[in-house]
Design goal:
alpha/beta, 10 strands, about 40% helix, eight-stranded parallel β-barrel
């Protein structure tokens, strides 16, 4: 069983427990459910393209940074030009929580991506209820039909969709309603990083599709390598979060691009 298989198995248990505690109707009755979502698609086009991430830990790296607060980091990301903010909400494997989005939503005025393993319709109502603007669909967790159905549901709720792929086979998951396509530089099954593979995969996408390079951007040179090869967006977390002061790390990075 791969790490991804283990995560998905645990996610199913989490969702079942959440459904028993809070109904969809109760989620619809929350304060953020009626808010108009912000467009990550437009923000990537008009700003730096960086989707800066708040991430405490990961299965491959262990604890990255447990000492900073979401609002301190997210505020700096916005101040210094991020197009959007990605916030992990998976608790067991990434140390995230819904409250991390709730703590920043009222103070942040750029799109927020709920980054999690979306495998059930219920999670889309959750995302809307906590103030997310965008959801991540991971092709390796879903069938093409599920991606289609979840994209339609997301759009019904006003959410945008970032589809994550890693292989040429997963291009079959793309459909014309997808808002952005993320290409994960890191293989979720063995966690190896290959930027050149991502570039090759990007070149197989329709030219009009906004492409986002995800994960494994460890140096400023990696950023420029991907940007020069046509990527529109860059999902970056560990690069900033591994520093004692992610806000300062992001500020310094932003001055170089």
């Amino acid at each position: 069983m791969t790490i991804l298989d283990t995560i998905i198995q645990r996610k199913k248990e989490e969702i079942a427990a959440a459904k028993s505690e809070t109904t969809v109707e109760q989620l619809k009755d929350t304060a953020f459910f009626e808010r108009n979502c912000l467009s990550l698609q437009q923000s990537v086009k008009n700003k730096s393209g960086i989707i800066a991430e708040f991430k405490r830990q990961s299965p491959s790296k262990g604890v990255i940074n447990n000492s900073v607060q979401p609002l301190d980091v997210a505020s700096a990301y916005e101040k210094f030009g991020a197009s959007g903010i990605s916030i992990l909400t998976d608790r067991d494997f990434f140390g995230g929580d819904f409250s991390d989005i709730l703590k920043v939503r009222n103070d942040i005025h750029i799109p927020i991506l709920r980054k999690d393993f979306m495998i059930d319709e219920y999670q889309f109502y959750e995302a809307k209820s906590i103030g997310a603007d965008v959801v991540l669909l991971i092709a390796s967790c879903l069938s093409p039909d599920q991606v289609q159905e979840f994209t339609e549901l997301a759009h019904e709720l006003g959410l945008e969709v970032l589809l994550e792929i890693h292989t040429e086979e997963e291009l079959k998951h793309f459909n014309s309603k997808i808002d952005l396509v993320g290409i994960n530089n890191r293989n979720l099954k063995d966690f190896k990083v290959d930027l050149q593979h991502s570039v090759q995969l990007k070149n197989l996408l329709p030219k009009e599709v906004l492409s986002v390079a995800e994960s494994g951007i460890y140096h400023i040179d990696d950023f420029f390598y991907l940007k020069e090869r046509g990527f529109d967006g860059f999902l970056m977390g560990e690069y900033f979060m591994k520093n004692a002061d992610p806000a300062q790390a992001f500020q310094e990075f932003s001055l170089q691009i």
